[in-house]
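Notebook, p. 212. Picked up where the previous page left off. The plan for this session was modest: take the two constructs that came back from the sequencing core last week, fold each one, and keep the raw output in the notebook itself so nobody has to go hunting through shared drives later. Recording the first one now, exactly as returned: residue sequence, then the structure token string.
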Amino acid sequence: MYLLGALPAFMANVRAAVKTDKRVVSSKDFPKPLGPYSHAVVAGGFVFVAGQAPINAATQKLELGDIKSETRLELQNISTILKASGTSIENVVKVSIHLVDLADFDAMNEVYREFFAGDHPARTTTQAVLRSGRKIEIDCIARMPR
């Protein structure tokens, strides 16, 4: 009977722990979001990084170019976001890549290998319609270090 009486207090503590587990990550070193979203959210031992556009954080301007330059800039921004979140690109477990033109796949992959040289994360690559004339958008999930 005592255990049943303690259940509401226990559940309140569980709900509080779940609510406080979520942390939004922001920094002046990131490009400003293009909409109502956070760059990254830390929850459940993972960092969820929103899709990135090729924006130069210093100028806050899109830097449209070839697929290699856009890929490199987005992955650099992701690396900065992960560092500010308390983890690193080495802890990425899942990447999603959205390409306007699948003919850019090999060139994108060349730059991607510069950032993910060792144990590669799981990855999905799709063709997509992207706004602002950009060629690529990348998002990822990384684990927090133990």
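Okay, moving on. Second construct, recorded in the same format:
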Amino acid sequence: MTDFGKITSGIIEEFKRLLGNSAVIYEDKQALENYSSDEAGGKYYSHMPDLVLKPNNSKQISEIVKIANKERIPITPRGAGSGLAGGSVPLYGGIVICLERMNRILEIDKTDLVAVVEPGVVTNDLCRKVADTGLYYAGYPMSVETSFVGGNVATNAGGSKVIKYGNTGHHVLGIEAVLPNGEIIQFGGKRRKDSSGYDIKHLLVGSEGTLGIFTKIFLNLIPRPGKNVDLLVPFRSVDEAISNVSTLIIESKVLPTAIEYIDHLSIILGSKYNNIELPFQEEAGAYLIIQYEGQDKKELESIYERVGDALLNSGALDVFVADNRTNSEKIWRVRRNWLEALKFFDPYVPTGDVVIPTSKIPQIVRFVKEISKEYNVDIPIAGHAADGNLHPAPMKPQNISIPEWKVISEEILSRIAIKAAELGGAVSGEHGIGFIKKELLRKTKNLQYKIMKSIKVNIDPNNIMNPGKIF
């Protein structure tokens, strides 16, 4: 259904009475444009909203949604706008509900080990606040300094620490949400077990705003880990790097916190952007960045000595140990700023997000190289080697126009995503489907797609909640 209702002056006045004038943006084109796109690429993918609302609590959201549902006005929930799949682009105009004012950390419960937060809390703010209490929030996407917790839950965001701690959904104990009919309902809470029927909270995780708007999130906390150590390990080839992922896990006898992969081209561009030089960066075909946690320095030394010997015996050019903050920051800066570095050299670079079994990474990388030659396009890759989540990023050649590049880059990333699905993976590992990958979802998950769509139709029969996303 795309036959949506219109926003009238009467509806605008009703929202102003509900929220106050400062929380309603209307007819200010420049201000509205700030809410027309996300990090998927404002140069390609954007659509102007008719209205932006900034509620302060769940009751206000409930009233907004009731009016929108009655009038059949589309709603697009929006967090920080840091998404990479177009999930917060208001494809049909209508209302953008911006959650930036709902940014309160409501409670850090040291008894039940639970944080209760509103969806607009910046992930890093939560991590710092929790750390001050001696606890730890392990849901840690790479965009930790900019992303909102609500957006992380909406896309089931991953990140570098999934191998040890799992993606965002693993940490969600409960969700309070406003459903498309305006009803406020809570699923789960501070409890860790509940076998009383369907686990609906985890149906909401990854739903990308298509089933409701999160207003309160209950997150699991754990004791704060001890010390950590980072290893930078260069290899001559991708195959050598990836074949060592299982080796280092077995030899260390403990799960690493992270195993990140970054290829040769990414290192070259990242080093230039960050104005640093990494060892072997001219010879290495790929690097692994490995992090371990331990209770003390002695335990960490035992781990990295075992792992280092095993890696050197399996083809590593060297194993560099960063056991202080300065050296660790140098190692992680290139990986953390990877996309920013690529955008510095090419503002039109899109980033893919595919996941495959770890053992299939060499195959998908070889396929990407074939695609790169076929299209005569550079495609640097970085990603989370331990969980098989890779991000290919085709870079625009100078001789291709921007409109042509949009078509070509979408074709390249679609072919890579389809290949990932054929290898036993999926078209998205952590960024979500949004509207950019909805056709890929339909092609690769036919029966599952039908089941998901039937759930959407039943919960949101008027299709007002983030229409055009996922389906």
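Notes on construct two before I forget. The mean pLDDT is 94.
Flagging for discussion at group meeting.
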